[in-house]
Amino acid sequence: MKLSYEDVANAVEQADLDPAEVIVTDYIGRYAREGFGLRIDMIGDAFQILLYLNEAGINAHELADRTNMDGLGHHTIVYFPGFALEGAPEDDDE
After folding, report:
1. For the chain, which terminal residue's Cβ has fewer other Cβ atoms within 10 angstroms, N or C?
2. What CATH number has the domain bearing residue 20?
3. How far apart are CA 60 and CA 54, in angstroms?
4. Domain range enclosing 69
């Protein structure tokens, strides 16, 4: 399933977070296939982003049903296997 990067970035901004720091466009988790992720400090941030996505007309229930989490030291990544982001900016590090 594909989502618009812009829609996800808008939801992240509505949660008072920086999309460049939060959105991981292609994450491969320990137990699931590739998808996009949200690098967060508190799980409440992920809930808030999902609520904003739902308000934007995106089926947040489907996202929540496929949610996985991995610890990243000081952060957590909540990721959504099988969901790709369309229109994501190119990575400047390449």
Report:
1. C
2. 3.30.70
3. 5
4. 2-83
